[in-house]
Each structure stands twice: as structure tokens, then as C-alpha cells.
Amino acid sequence: MDSPSRIDSGDRRDDEADEGQRGFFGLIGSRIGKQRGDTAANLHTHEALLLLQNYEESGQGWFWSTDAKGRLTYITDSVARLMGRTAGALLGTVFTDLFLPVDSHGERQRTLPFLLTKQSKFDKLPLRSAFEGDDRWWAISGRPQFDGGGKFTGYRGSGADVTAQRRSAEDASRLALYDSLTGLANRFAISKKLDTTLAAFAQQQRSCAIMLLDLDRFKQVNDTLGHPAGDALLKQVAERLLKIVGDKEMVSRLGGDEFQIILPDIEDRGKLGDMAADIIASLSQPYSVEGSRCIIGASVGVAIAPFDGLSSDDLVRNADLALYAAKGNGRGRFAFYSSDLHTAAEDRRALEDDLRDALVRGEMALVYQPVVHSKSNMVSGVEALIRWAHPERGVISPSVFIPIAEEAGLIWALGEWVLRTACEDAANWPGDMRVAVNVSPIQFANADLPKVVAKALGATGLAPGRLELEITESVFLGDTAETARMFKALKALGVRLALDDFGTGYSSLAYLQSAPFDKIKIDQSFVRDATIPGSRNGAIIAAIVALAEALEMETTAEGIESLDQLELIRKLNVSHVQGYVYSRAVPQAELLDHAEGTWTIKPAGPARQRNDRFSLFRKVGAIHDNHRYAVVIRNLSATGAFIEGLLDVPVGTRFVIDFGEGQLVTAIVRRSMRHQQGVEFEQTMVSDGNGGLCTRHRVSPYLIAAATQSTAALALPSFTTTSDWKAA
Predict the structure, then answer these.
(1) CA distances from 477 to 80, 218, 234, 444, 468 (A)
(2) CA angle, corner 500, sides to 498 and 505, nearest 5?
(3) If you count Cβ atoms within 10 Å of the first and of the last residue's Cβ in the chain, which end, N or C, has fewer?
(4) Lowest pLDDT segment from 321-330, 403-412, 593-602
């Protein structure tokens, strides 16, 4: 009979060979196999079995064993119950069936079946339970067993529950890759995503667009309602973005109020523009945050690989430049990147410097656009519009310099000058015609605005009822008591208030109940398509008019240019009209000729609404029969253009206009007058988001690099052969 010391010595050798991984199960197995009825050994074995049982019941670990075919011969009963079974029911089960395949969870290691087949030892292999409803992770260790003849007999091993550690690691990984506030990918994650996407797409010659978003007026929410409200608002913004984009992995929050979206395999600028417009419209709808109603906006910059850059750094930089352009052109817009934005950014900085001294140098002037009664054609008032006569650049549109003034902190001084000058001019009109002056949200937020208005009225002697302040819906950002107090203070002066740009996305009936408006101005973008068959805009305008009449308010339709638009507006009972169908804005000297007595304007203009035409002077290329001619575009619309530079081109001639940067459009000559041609595009152009037009698609740089000088190599349509014609 072996002595206890001999047994212990042998056990120590076995334990050392197994590096402690067999635990009590291996220890007891060894002892049971060696003991020969020795009482001391039996007592020792019994004590070890009790310790084994106690360890298993503690939940700190468990044991398992298999036969040579990998079928369970032992498993701790408490663990079997956690798996929804009993130990008895699991005996004979293939051990690997207890766990999900490692590869299905992205583990970069050898799989359990591989290790068992190779009869290899393994330590703390992370595996997930395969049983439904059991979302546990186990760290499994095992050692192969052999009999005295070296024949493989199976495995013995142990396991431990590592679910908590696993989830903690996943949480840490999630924090490293995802924004903790919104749950969206963070800057680091989206940057990696963009890098890998662009690298793969470059090899496959595929396109990928990105959008950079910046929230407009978000800072005001933080300042007025506090950072907790700002955080709650950002969560709602993220939800709205996901609803439009769909793929959570492609939307990220870069930090603050900046977001980025990756859009693989999209280069159609029509689709991208529609999505950008949808995003802006969605994010501009009112929010409810901690019992307060908030209104913000958004601006979007778009860049597309490979056209606007091949690397992530180039693409993001160019999208950011497009975003800057969108914000600079009035916010609430989108813009596509183009190479001339670099020049535009420099021009913008130069304009800001010049704008600081423009008032002092007397470069600012006011012009006045008549507001006409729709039924009688009589002028009831005018809107004051500012113009900047730059000494080198000529007249600059307010749509260009007003956003610069707002960002540079110049809008208050500029607005005060406009108000004083408009009152001064109107005081000299012999009649009682009203003058309307725009008030920016920045001016409205300044508590000194009523004092400035009172000072202008007092200094000029203008009757308060002849001054109308036009206020946009964005002043209702926080719907705070300060807004109500401002309205009360302005109305106490006796001036009129008009709600400007109604119908642009912020529209709500709630503030019409409390804000003391005298007029609603229906935005021109809202009424422009009202005459198109199938449009619902007419019905909506009718509803706005009915609401205004019930509230004893006037209505003005802006931007009316065609006679069919005017006819519809009259039928819908809109009380006043403003637009080119009656008159452009005129200077003070011309206005004085009409101000005395009644002023009636006969409407004039195109019979029907037509696509917007842009007057410009732009050099482009015209390609025909592998020849390229330099021409100038004088007028451009979505469906065609008016060009100069070619002589006697036959009607029906088909050629390609090259706008640059891969923008090619096939055009057909519909009218020809010596050196001037009117052409129709085969595919309509789309909005560039900033009041201009661009082609829906571009020729990929991949294709251009591989192409020959032949236009056929660019996969362009073939041209109709015509008689000879030459450049002018």
C-alpha cells in the first residue's frame, strides 16, 4: 500500500505538469486511481471531494471532462442549470455545442474545435454560451488526458464566468469609439471608418460622399436654457439624423454641435442635395426640451470622393470649406465643394475687412421695393433693402455681406443705420406710405432695440404707424419671457410688426396666438411652385390667408414674378404682393416721384412661371466632333442656357458643355442667332444649395485619367454631324 506521502508526491508532479489547470477534479481523479483502501487516503479523498463541491457551489468556477470523442462525461451541475439544463441531461453532449463559434463574434484566435482536434492545451479561451436566453461569456481552460499507453482518453478542464469583465471591456471599447451623449460614432471612429472606406473604394473606383453639419443658433439654446437642455437637444438631433440616414455606423458626432455623415456609393448631387435639404428641414422643426420650445437650424457642406479629394483629410477639409460657404450665404443652406471656394473664402475675409469701414466711407445705400395691394394695384408701402456699393467690386448683394456682418459683430451698427436712414427717407415722403425694415435675430435679442427704434422715430418725426418691423420666426428660438417683453416694448411704441419668411420650415401656429403681428409675409420659396400642376402649395397658402384674416392680419406674398402666379395669389385672397411682377427695388430719388398722392403700378412680366434664370458671364468649353471651343454663358437655367462665341450653329446641333471639374452636360441648339445660341440640356441641372446650379453627375477622375483625348473615351453621347461652323 502506498503511503500518503507517496500519493502527495505523485499528485504534486501531476499538478505541476498540468500547471494547476486540472484543479480539484484532476487531483481527486489521481487519488482515486492510486489509493488502495488506505483509511487515511480515503479520509483525505473525502475531504478533497467536499472542498471540490464547496468550490463548485461558490460559483467562482466549474469543472468539465470529455471522452476521447469530445462528449461530456462530467459538468458542474450549477453551471448546467445556468445553461437551462441539468448535468445529467448534458452528459453525452458534444462539448463544443455548449458555445457559439468564435468566428461569429469576430475573435482573432484559434477556435475551440481546432484546439480539441489537435489535442492542444488551452487557457482561458473566451467563449459565449450557445443556449438561448443565456448571454454569458466563459473563460474555458482544458488539458488533454492520456492513459498509461499514451492513448488519448479525453479532456479535463475548468471554466469561469467572465461576463462582467467582458461587458466592462466592451463598454470601454464603446466609449473609445462612440459618443457617450448621443450614442453615435465619435470623431476617432468615423475618421477610421472614412479612411478604410476611401482606401477600399479607390481600388474599386467607387464614389463616396460626406456631409459636415453644423447647427445654427445652438449656442443660444445653451446660453438661454442651460447645458443640460443643450445636451437633450443634441440627443434629439441625433435621432432625427438617424431617421433620415438610416445607418447608425455612418453618422457621427464630431463634438459640440458638429456632425459628420458618410454616404458610400452616392455621387448624384441631385440626391445629395435632396438629402441635405431634408436634413436641414428636419433639424429646423421645433424641439421640446425640458418644457421649453426650441428652434434651431442647420447648415451642410458636401464633398464627394474622388471628385473633391481622394484622402480623408482632403475630403473633410473640402467639406468643411463647403460648410463655411453654406453658413456664409445665410445659414440653413447646403453647399457642394468646388475649387473656387478657396478663392471665395479669401474674398470673404477681404470683404469683412472692407465692411468694417463701409459705413464710414458712405458706401451703403437703401433702395425700396414697392408692396402693392393685390386687387387695386396701388402701392401701400415699401420694403427698405440695403445695398453696398463697393469701390472695386461694384454693388454687392445683402445675401453676401449680411451673414458676414452677423459673424463679424457688425450687424448691430449696420441695422441701426438702416433703421435711422429708412425713417429719415420716409419722413420726407409727402404721402402716408409705410416703410418696412428688416430686424435680424441678433438685433431682436438686444434689449436696447426699443430705444434705438424710439430714437429713430423721434429724430426723424416719422409717425410710428408708418414703420413696420419685419421679424423672422427664428426669434422664437427659446420662446422665453424676454421675447414676449420685447414684443410688448415694440408695440408700445406704436410700430407695426410683420412675421417675415413664413413657411420656411419653422412655421408654427403657437406663436401667432401671442405675438402681436400685423402682417404675415409668405416666403417666396413657398409660393414659387404654387402654380405647378399637382402642387399643394396653393391649398396651404389659402389656409394661411384664412388664418391671418381670422386674426385680423394682412398677408404679403413675396417674390411674385409671373402673371399666372399673380392670378393665383389674387384668387387665394392674399392682400398684398411684392415682386418683380410689379417693380424691382428703386432708389429714394425715384420713389419721391411717386410718393405724392396715389401710386398705381400695372403688373407686367412673363405669362407663366419659368425656371429660375441666372444672369452671368462665365467662360466654359463647348465640345463638338472632338473640337473644343471657348464660349461664354450669359444666362443659365436648370433646363438650358444662352451662350455666345460660336457663329451660325445650325438648330439641332448637339454638343457638350464643359463647366469644369468634371461637369459635362449634353446640349441641343434650339435657337441660333449669328453668334448667340439658346440651348436645351438633355439632363436638367440641380441646385447647388447656394442659389446656383450644378450638374447632377460628374465625370470621375478615374475615368478622366484613363481616357484619351477623344470625347468618346469619356463615355459621352455621340454628336450629330452638321455643316461647318466656327468660333466667333
Answers:
(1) 60, 9, 15, 11, 22
(2) 140
(3) N
(4) 593-602
- Looking at per-residue confidence, does 530 or 388 come out higher? 388
Q: Is the pLDDT of residue 315 over 70?
A: yes
| Sheet (strand 297-305) strand order | 251-255, 258-264, 208-216, 297-305, 334-336
Distance of CA 419 to the CA centre of its chain: 36
- Of the candidates 224, 372, 209, the residue with the CA atom closest to the CA atom of residue 305: 209
Specify burial of residue 139 (Cβ count, 10 A radius: 0-12, 13-18, 19+). Answer: middle
Half-sphere exposure of 524 (CA within 13 A, CB side): 12
Secondary structure class of 94 (helix, strand, coil) = strand
CA-wise closest residue to 695 among 620, 585, 600, 610: 620
Q: Which pLDDT score is estimated for 173?
A: 61
What pLDDT digit, counting tens, does each position of 444-497 carry?
888 899 999 999 999 999 999 999 999 987 777 555 678 888 999 999 999 999
Q: Are 573 and 531 in contact, with CB atoms under 8 Å apart? A: no
Q: Is 106 helix (H, G, I), strand (E, B) or coil?
A: coil
Whole-model pTM over 0.85: no
How many helices (H) and strands (E) the chain has is answered by: 24, 32
Percent over 90 (pLDDT), the chain: 36
Residue 669 — φ and ψ, nearest 5°?
-70, 120
In three-state secondary structure terms, 105 is: helix
pLDDT at 126 over 70: yes
Contact 605, 562 (CB under 8 A): yes
- Which grid coordinates are listed for 491? 408695440
CB 113 within 8 A of CB 96: yes
Where would I find the H helices in 551-624?
563-571, 588-592
CA atoms within 13 A on the CB side of 639: 4
- C-alpha–C-alpha distance, residues 628 and 274, integer Å: 33
Cα 20 from Cα 574, distance rounded (Å)? 90
Of 28-42, 97-111, 122-136, 424-438, the poorest mean pLDDT is in 28-42
Residues 6+ apart with CB under 8 A from 403: 327, 328, 329, 330, 331
Residue closest to 404 by CA, chosen among 356, 474, 363: 356
CATH numbers and ranges of domains, the chain? 4-163 (3.30.450.20), 178-338 (3.30.70.270), 363-592 (3.20.20.450), 614-727 (2.40.10)
Q: How far is CA 453 from the centre of its chain?
A: 38
CB neighbours of residue 530 within 10 Å: 23
Query: Cell 384674416 belongs to which residue?
Result: 549
Residue 662: DSSP 8-state: T
Between helices 218-225 and 227-245, what is the axis angle to 10°? Answer: 150
Q: Which pLDDT tens digit goes with each residue over 153-209?
A: 999 999 988 888 887 776 666 666 788 899 899 998 899 999 999 999 988 889 999
